[in-house]
Design a protein that fits this description.
The protein is α+β, with helices and mostly antiparallel strands. Helices cover 50% and strands 21% of the residues. The strands form six sheets. The chain has a five-stranded antiparallel β-sheet, with helices on both faces. A hairpin with a 2-residue loop joins strand 8 and strand 9. Helix 1 runs antiparallel to helix 9. It is rod-shaped and about 210 Å long. Bound molecules: adenosine-5'-triphosphate and magnesium ion. The site of adenosine-5'-triphosphate has 22 residues, from helix 13 and helix 15. The site of magnesium ion has 5 residues, from helix 13.
């Protein structure tokens, strides 16, 4: 897996984790929001329902108040004959669809019942609404519970209407009875006063709320406006007596109104027992609703029933699901976009790096022309341009090396040709020269010492000898013999050379300084050949100093490179810069004709090379020259090479 793929995977993991967390949290809050919104809605719906219920109550209140003020009633009461008002009252009861309408005297004793003319004389002073109207001399309206007896007294048909079979309901509080006989009544009472303002009686009347679905349907119509969801009414409204549904538009499975079903114990405890509003989701009869319940209180403040509104939960659930899905879809699209973006981005990022890798491979494989084209201005761009610079300088270095190698090859070819030429010439000259040497010596033997030609022949013999020496040198150079190596101490070898020359006139004024490392190891070499090299260096030095100066001979062990160094430093005239490159060439000499063949260093170079070593020169013109030989340290022949 490439670094970029890893980077991308890491990025994507972060993106996906973050998105998932974000989406989860968001979906949760959307859900909470929707539920809270629904509960707010249903709470305000319940407020509207409460106002509507109040409106019914107010209507009843006004109705009773206005009738109580009518002259016919006052006159009848003052006259002591209420029956005179019976016709008027009965008509009013019918036109206002009141369930009962009753007149009492100032003490609360019933004088006339429009709905039940046969029953009079009982006291209604115990009914707090009536008592308040009489006692406080003002109209009063309130929700009131009437027992079956009370209902029956007001109107013989009412107990039957009020009686409800309780329907077994899951979650409802336990109840011993199976029938509800009480009735919830919207009751209003108003005092009847004489001209002096004294209370001479009371008029009261009301509606039995039980089974009077007009109220809850009116609430539903006004609050929910008949809104439907998937073919079902969204809103429902109910009035409870205690915990029994007595008027409702919540429907049973069979489409009938769920009258007689009961409230869950939990809601009952909060609303009826605790007297507080309850808002929440609840399973009502056969479906989930967002519901709100308010206590209905009688004139004394006791909770006698409940006003309920509820909306189907389904629309909110669907809203929540749809919003969440929409949100998830948006998140998903964002994640996909992020993935696509990071893919493109990482391709763009990894492209140049891959180009760099590719170019490095090519350079490693030897293609120094390899270049990276990178346009970006960032670190990668910098890297690429550094890479290009590096490749370019590598290429330049490579060309320099090639040029150098080419020169070296040409040089050695030249040396080879010169060497071959020298060998051929030497070979050709050797035989005639041997003839000259032999015959000149024969001639000398035959001559008397005083022969006048003798000095000339001696010159011929000497010069011929000199030529023979040169020829021998040439042959040595062109046909180097294989070294006969044995373990030798370099210091002893050099000392032998020095002892051979030190007595010579040339060395009389030369101070030889020996700077030898004490524990120098011995190494295998051909002592004769190496002595030829040392000797040449020593004599060259002495000649360069013109016989006066210091010759410092030093030996060292370079432990790291395991080589023995032997250096010869003189205080002679040095080598000019232009000659520096030529002193190892065969026949290169600055010495007068007859004094040097220019083969000494060429032969030395060959010998040292044959030993696997090197010979180098450092010189400062006019100050001196140092030749340094490096030989590999070897304990036996063939080792280390
Ligand atoms: N120690 C030195 N100081 C200054 N120049 C030197 C020294 N050694 C060698 N040279 C220069 O290098 C040349 C070549 O030296 P090389 O030993 O090859 O030949 P040669 O000494 O001239 O002749 P040959 O050694 O054959 O007698 C010398 O002529 C001299 O110019
Ligand atoms: Mg020499």
């Amino acid at each position: 897996m490439s670094r970029f793929v890893k980077l991308m995977v890491a990025f994507l993991t972060i993106i996906i984790l973050l998105s998932a967390t974000f989406a989860g949290v968001a979906v949760f809050f959307i859900g909470e929001r929707v539920v809270a919104e629904a509960q707010n809605r249903v709470s305000s719906d319940l407020n509207s329902a409460g106002e509507m219920y109040e409106a019914y109550s107010d209507r009843l209140y006004d109705l009773i108040r206005l009738q109580a003020d009518r002259f016919y009633l006052r006159d009848a009461l003052l006259a002591g004959d209420v029956t005179a008002a019976a016709g008027e009252l009965t008509g009013k009861m019918a036109s206002e669809q009141l369930d009962f309408l009753t007149v009492t005297d100032a003490a609360g004793l019933v004088l006339l019942r429009a709905a039940n003319p046969g029953v009079v004389g009982d006291s209604q002073a115990g009914v707090s609404v009536v008592a308040a109207a009489l006692g406080e001399a003002k109209p009063v309206a309130a929700t009131t519970v009437f027992t079956a007896d009370m209902l029956g007294r007001e109107s013989p048909s009412l107990p039957e209407v009020a009686e409800l079979q309780l329907v077994e309901t899951q979650g409802a509080r336990p109840r011993d009875d199976t029938v509800e006989t009480d009735g919830l009544v919207l009751l209003a009472a108003a005092p009847v006063v004489d001209e002096a303002g004294d209370v001479i009686g009371a008029l009261y009347g009301g509606w039995l709320v039980t089974r009077r679905n007009g109220i809850v349907d009116g609430i539903k119509e006004t609050v929910f406006g008949g809104a439907q969801y998937e073919g079902r009414d969204i809103g429902t409204s109910t009035i409870f007596l205690d915990d029994v549904r007595i008027a409702t538009n919540v429907l049973n499975e069979d489409g009938t109104r769920a009258i007689g079903t009961r409230l869950s114990e939990e809601v009952y405890n909060q609303v009826v027992v605790g007297g507080e509003r309850w808002v929440g989701r609840a399973y009502v009869v056969n479906d989930w609703y967002i519901t709100a319940y308010d206590p209905l209180r009688d004139r004394d403040g006791s909770v006698v029933g409940i006003l309920y509104v509820g909306t189907l939960e389904k629309p909110y659930v669907d809203l929540r699901v749809n919003t969440s899905l929409l949100f998830l879809a948006i998140t998903l699209i964002a994640v996909v976009a992020a993935i696509a973006f990071s893919y493109v981005f990482s391709r763009r990022l990894s492209g140049p790096v891959r180009a760099l890798v590719e170019a490095s491979r090519r350079v490693a494989a030897g293609d120094l022309q390899a270049k990276v084209t990178v346009t970006s201005n960032d670190e990668i761009g910098e890297l690429a341009s550094s890479f290009n610079t590096m490749a370019a300088s590598l290429q330049a270095r490579d060309e320099q090396l090639k040029e150098f190698a080419r020169k070296r090859i040409m040089e050695s070819e030249r040396l080879a040709v010169v060497g071959q030429l020298a060998a051929d010439v030497a070979h050709e000259l050797n035989n005639p020269l041997q003839g000259i040497v032999t015959y000149s010596h024969l001639l000398l033997e035959k001559m008397t010492p005083d022969d006048p030609r003798r000095s000339s022949v001696e010159k011929i013999a000497n010069q011929a000898n000199r030529c023979a020496t040169i020829i021998r040198g040439l042959l040595d150079f062109s046909r180097p013999t294989k070294p006969q190596k044995k373990l030798t101490d370099v210091r002893t070898s050099i000392d032998e050379c020095l002892s051979l020359v030190e007595d010579r006139v040339l060395f009389h004024n030369i101070e030889v300084v020996r700077d030898y490392q004490e524990d120098l190891p011995a190494t295998v070499m051909d002592p004769a050949q190496m002595q030829q090299v040392f000797m040449n260096l020593i004599i060259n030095a002495a000649e360069a100093m013109g016989g006066v100066g210091w010759l410092t001979v030093a030996t060292r062990l370079d432990v790291e490179r395991t080589v023995i160094q032997a250096s010869f430093r003189d205080t002679g005239h040095g080598v000019s810069e232009e000659n520096m490159g030529r002193i190892f060439d065969p026949f290169f000499t600055t010495k007068e004709v007859g004094h040097g063949t220019g083969l000494g260093l060429a032969i030395s170079f060959g010998i040292v090379k044959e030993h696997g070593g090197t010979i180098t020169v450092e010189s400062e013109e006019g100050a001196g020259t140092t030749f340094t030989i490096e030989l590999p340290v070897q304990a036996s022949e063939g080792e280390g090479q």
